[in-house]
Design brief:
The chain contains two helices and no strands. The chain is mainly alpha-helical. The protein has one domain. The chain is rod-shaped, with a radius of gyration of 25 Å. Keywords: Disulfide bond.
Amino acid sequence: MLAREVISMASSLEALANMTSESLKMQSAEMVALRTVAMQNRLALDYILSAQGGTCAVIGTECCT
């Protein structure tokens, strides 16, 4: 009886480990996509700001430099 409980617990733990592994893989893929979108947004913003004379030209007196 104890052996069956140990086997059942081991099976449950293995299933949990597999689900955790799959979840981490999906999160990793989502993070890659998020980084890509963030970089695309940054490039677009840099392009727009440079076309208007740079960050300080757009912000004016509130510029940090």
